[in-house]
Design goal:
With 420 residues, the protein is α+β, with helices and mostly antiparallel strands. It contains nine helices and six strands; from the N terminus they run H-E-H-H-E-E-H-H-E-H-H-E-E-H-H. The protein has helices at 2-18, 27-37, 39-54, 98-166, 172-207, 233-238, 244-264, 303-369, 375-410; strands at 24-25, 65-71, 86-95, 219-220, 271-279, 285-293. The strands form two sheets. The protein has a four-stranded antiparallel beta sheet with strand order 2-3-5-6, with no helix packed on it. It has a two-stranded parallel ribbon with strand order 1-4. Helix 8 packs antiparallel against helix 9. The radius of gyration is 37 Å and the shape is elongated.
Amino acid sequence: MKIRFISLGILLVFSLVFGNQLDSLTVQKAVAFAIEHNPSLNQLRQQIKMAEAARWETPGIGTPVLSWYKEGIPLSQSTTSPPFQEKGLRLSQSIDFPLTSLFRYQTANARVHALRLQYEARVRELRAQVKSDYARVAYYLELSHLSQQMVEIATAFKNTVKARLDAGEASELELLNAEIRSQEANNQLLDARWQYDKARYQLFNTIGLDPDNQTYHIVFLDSLRYTEVLIPQEEVLAELPQLPEIQAARLSYQGAQSGVKAAWSSFLPNINLLYYRQDYGRGIDFYGWEVGLSLPLDFLFRQKPRIQQAKADARFMFWEYEKQLLNWKKRAEYVWHQYATAMQKLQPYHAEIRAKSRKLLQLTLQGYQMGEIDYLSLLEAQRVYLQTEQHYFTTLFDYSMSVIQMEIFLGKELIFISQE
């Protein structure tokens, strides 16, 4: 029985430790994982909760004070009681002027809504970052495959040169050149694999994957492929005012304006309430109340600095809003033109150039093996094929990255969309 319980305990531990490990990863799975586990996003969630809780402090209702008092206490036990003695309970309460509380609440409420918009903006940015990192993984994975093909081509070419050398149809110089190119192809493969591993760990860091679960066994199921997406420039620019960052900046400015009103309302008097019971002895009990208003006689040291600070904060938020507008306009223009350029460069590759370069290399290699094509022609065909493939995947990667950035502006997914 003990052995059975120990076995069950070991199985339970292993299920808890390894049950959350990822064995495969798609783009959508990576995005969902990041939204749940990304540290920065979780910190922002807690900031929203803190701001929501801070709204309860805005009414400006002080803590009630219950006090006991007694007057007419004799100086010593030998003296007789004084002719007048008073004792009783007092309950006091201070309340800020209602208009001041209202402006404070508006400021705090604007901060809550601004943080929520910042959260929405952060989700957009995080989704785009995860997709970008995943696209980079897919890009270097394609380059690794391409480099592997280049190694195979270089090896086949070297073997062909050796065969021709043995037959007296090639020179030692050609063989030496082929061996150098073969070694360079191997080095390119090693570099591509290193870049692939580097991209993997960047993706793991972005989604917040626990270091113990960052293994080599994770399979990336989505690949880098061409998806035609038509995005008019006017549509991108029209969405600028609706960006969460712009709306958050606008709300922060409005909240700062409410802060100015709250600072001016500090001239309004605070209200102090006092309710008490008096006991004069001999069964004579009375109840009384008091109402007091605070007077801002020290406005030079309290109200004036507050107003100046609030005005400066409002001006700062206004220029922050203007800065956000300018920065996002510039970013939108950069990203759209990058997208348009990449699409114009990518379409010919996708339509015919890649197929032609593969056919050229295949026919040239066959002709060289048969002795119909010289060595320089084969080198040129190999160079064209390598350059074409590299340019295609680089352009495809740039195109994918620009479309992913467009998702931030349009607020919708354009590529790597879930098919479920």
